[in-house]
Automatic annotation (TrEMBL):
Transport among keywords: no
GO molecular function: alpha-L-fucosidase activity
Superkingdom of this protein's organism: Bacteria
Name recorded for this polypeptide: alpha-L-fucosidase
Family: Belongs to the glycosyl hydrolase 29 family.
Gene Ontology terms: biological process: fucose metabolic process; glycoside catabolic process
Pfam families: Alpha_L_fucos
Broad EC category: hydrolase
Keywords per UniProt: Glycosidase, Hydrolase, Signal
InterPro entries per the UniProt record, alphabetical: FUC_metazoa-typ, GH, Glyco_hydro_29, Glyco_hydro_29_N, Glyco_hydro_b
GO-annotated cellular components: lysosome
Provenance organism: Olivibacter domesticus
Length: 497
């Protein structure tokens, strides 16, 4: 006879096996039926989580979504040392030089006395951005060093106290507005110049008191920016990863509400605040916090699944990791073709691509960046239709490049970067639809032979487009598709699978 405790253990084991069996039997076929199905997310009641599920559909956000290409500008005191100080080369990001070991903090903090960019011409910057094809700009109003390029009344560490004296931010906003380029204000929550700022959680009464002052200061500056620059369309936040800031859940949430009330339609990304469990970008239920995902910095998603149906932007540097001006770029410097490819990939995956520029201490945009802007601009001049107002096409990704689709006309754009040795571009259209017309975007007279293409059609709704010559630059082919064919054909297609 077995002791009762062993019997109990046996029963427990049986129950566990039965549960596992039932799970595998029921759950697996269910998941196989819905391959895209995500396991059920938790649904914690959150006070400071996401305030909206799904994409924003208002006009301001529609405009944002359709930009395609933007420009980022990092410009501040760090442009003066440009990655060097007292003959020493600092390899790290130039805009962080104040914090690099060996850099005398006092020297840096006095640089504002030298900030006098004699060659700064906001109109020339804006004209160059326009020529490149940028439809929005994100400008650093204040980076981590705390120096403000607008005359903030809440600190003396501003451009008003530099020899330049004038409001550079206003000059920039006015110049970009005049070119029809929407302006977004970059703002760093990290502020190395403010006494109350700290990265670790405040502990003592004094630390807590001064951090409260810092919070008030931050709120005042943000409201000041929105009031002083009423045409700005949004705020681009940075430096929000500190523990001290993450803990300010309720404060940041209510500040965001206040900022949105000041400027209806204001666009804020996912980098501003954390939920009550300290989760950033996505709250504890996995929902996006903010109007678009702001986590794609110097990297791109690979598949449409990676962006979870959200809006997003990618911010990219030309060299490896330099945002502010560094007089000596080392390592790989991206070419315009590489950057065009990143832009095409971003748009094909429903995002915007934002290219960074770091003007020098005199206000000049460096020649390498000017060259790249010019080359991208030349490509955009003739191919912008494949980028502007476009997004994910819903078609299978192909190795030769990227496919975008106009949200306005429904046309598809095949952006070719790597022509296969066969010279054939494979394209798989949606079930039930076909190809009405195919032609080169640049030379619309080059229409591809419809009959030939139709003859190439496979059972899997794939077509093969033969290109005689290898394109010398990223080439765009426009595909106009037929409306969905008769229902019976669609059903037939489906029945075969
Ligand atoms: O630390 C900054 C960095 O200097 C730069 O401003 C980038 C731009 O997205 N953001 C921070 C790092 O995430």
């Amino acid at each position: 006879m077995r002791p009762p405790c062993c019997e109990k253990n046996e029963n427990m084991k049986k129950l566990a096996y039965l549960t596992l069996f039932l799970c595998l039997e029921i759950y697996q076929p269910l998941m196989a039926q819905f391959p895209g199905a995500v396991e059920k997310r938790s649904s914690i009641t959150l006070k400071h989580g996401s305030h909206r599920l799904g994409k924003r559909t208002d006009a301001a956000m529609e405009t944002w979504r359709n930009y395609g290409l933007g420009q980022f500008i990092h410009w501040g005191l760090y442009a003066i040392p440009g990655g060097h100080w007292n003959g020493k080369y600092y390899a790290g990001a130039a805009e962080w030089i104040r914090s690099w070991e060996g850099m005398p903090k006092g020297d840096y903090d006095n640089l504002y006395k030298e900030f006098n960019p004699k060659q700064f011409d906001a109109k020339a910057w804006a004209a160059q951005a326009k020529q490149m094809g940028a439809r929005y700009v994100i400008i650093t109003t204040k980076h981590h060093d705390g120096f403000c390029i607008w005359p903030s009344k809440y600190t003396s560490y501003t451009i008003a106290n530099s020899p330049y004296r004038k409001d550079a931010l206003k000059e920039i906003v006015d110049a970009y507005d005049a070119e029809g380029i929407d302006v977004y204000l970059y703002f760093s929550i990290i502020d190395w110049n403010h006494k109350g700022y700290r990265s670790a959680s405040p502990q003592t009464i004094e630390e807590k008191r001064s951090y409260e002052e810092f919070k008030k200061f931050t709120a005042n500056q943000l409201k000041e920016l929105l009031v002083n620059y009423p045409s700005a369309k949004g705020l681009w936040f940075d430096g929000t990863w500190d523990k001290a800031w993450i803990e300010q859940t309720a404060f940041a949430d209510s500040l965001e509400t206040e900022l949105r009330a000041i400027r209806p339609g204001l666009i804020i990304g996912s980098r501003f605040r954390a939920d009550e469990f300290g989760r950033r970008h996505f709250d504890s239920n996995g929902d996006l916090m903010g109007d678009y995902e702001q986590g794609w910095e110097r990297k791109l998603p690979n598949t449409i699944e990676d962006v979870h149906g959200n809006d997003w932007d990618c911010v990219m540097t030309v060299p490896e990791n330099q945002w502010g001006y560094h007089s000596e770029w080392r390592g790989h410097v991206k070419t315009s073709v590489e950057l065009i490819e990143m832009m095409a990939k971003s748009v094909a995956l429903d995002g915007n691509f934002v290219l960074n520029f770091g003007p020098d201490g005199q206000g000049n945009i460096r020649p390498e960046e000017t060259k790249i802007a010019k080359e991208i601009g030349e490509w955009m001049k003739v191919n912008n239709e494949a980028i502007y107002d476009c997004g994910y096409a819903g078609l299978e990704k192909q190795d030769w490049g990227y496919i975008t689709k106009s949200r306005k006309t429904g046309k598809y754009y095949l952006i070719v970067f790597n022509l296969p040795v066969s010279g054939d571009l494979r394209i798989k259209v949606s079930p039930g639809s076909g190809i009405k017309k195919l032609y080169d975007l640049v030379e619309p007279k080059t229409v591809y032979n419809a009959e030939e293409i139709h003859r190439s059609k496979t059972e899997g709704n794939e077509y093969f487009i033969h290109l005689k010559d290898k394109p010398l630059e990223p080439k765009v082919i426009v595909l106009e598709s037929t409306e969905k064919e008769k229902d019976s054909e669609v059903l037939y297609e489906r029945a075969k699978t």
